[in-house]
């Protein structure tokens, strides 16, 4: 999402800068593939007070992100990029296919559409 947002920002400003994601693993977003027992609960529709009690440490750290990218906008992003979604008990949102790979594919395709380069097996050892 960060790479997509950065690339969209650059495109809107007609910048010639580019975005590259360096991924240590052979495929991007590998951890997403195992979330929700392979189904990927990618967001939920709870308000901040109901959501934040489930964060063990650092709720304050994610509070700005929660309000800057509300769950409804996350669902809109995936729907606009071709992934059908479903909301289940507990206000949890999943891809309608119940396959985490669809979340990964949607993110990668959205990034590719904006010219983001994703380099796999590229471990960063320093900056």
How far apart are the first and last residues' alpha carbons, in Å? 22 Å
Uncertain runs are none
For the biggest sheet, the summary is: 3 strands, antiparallel
Work out the helicity level: 40-55%
Round the mean pLDDT to the nearest integer and report it: 94
* Order of neighbouring strands in the sheet with most strands: 2-4-3
> Which class best fits the helix and strand makeup?
alpha+beta
Strand content: 5-15%
Structure notes:
The chain is α+β, with helices and mostly antiparallel strands and 127 residues long. Helix content is 43%, strand content 14%. It contains 6 helices and 5 strands, in the order H-E-H-E-H-H-H-E-E-H-E. It has a 3-stranded antiparallel sheet with strand order 2-4-3. Strand 3 and strand 4 form a beta hairpin. It is globular, with a radius of gyration of 16 Å. The relative contact order is 0.25. The mean pLDDT is 94.
Draw up the topology in text.
Elements lengths: L1 H11 L7 E4 L6 H4 L9 E2 L3 H5 L6 H10 L2 H10 L4 E4 L3 E4 L4 H14 L3 E4 L7
Parallel strand pairs: 1-5
Antiparallel strand pairs: 2-4, 3-4
């Amino acid at each position: 999402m960060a790479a997509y947002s950065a690339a969209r920002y650059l495109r809107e400003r007609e910048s010639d800068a580019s975005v590259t994601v360096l991924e240590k693993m052979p495929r991007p977003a590998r951890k997403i593939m195992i979330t929700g027992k392979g189904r990927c609960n990618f967001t939920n529709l709870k308000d901040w007070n109901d959501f934040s009690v489930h964060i063990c440490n650092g709720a304050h750290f994610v509070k700005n992100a929660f309000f800057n990218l509300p769950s409804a906008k996350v669902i809109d992003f995936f729907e606009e990029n071709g992934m059908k979604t479903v909301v289940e008990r507990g206000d949890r949102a999943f891809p309608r296919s119940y396959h985490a790979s669809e979340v990964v594919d949607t993110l990668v395709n959205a990034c590719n559409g904006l010219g983001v380069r994703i380099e796999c097996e590229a471990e960063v050892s320093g900056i």
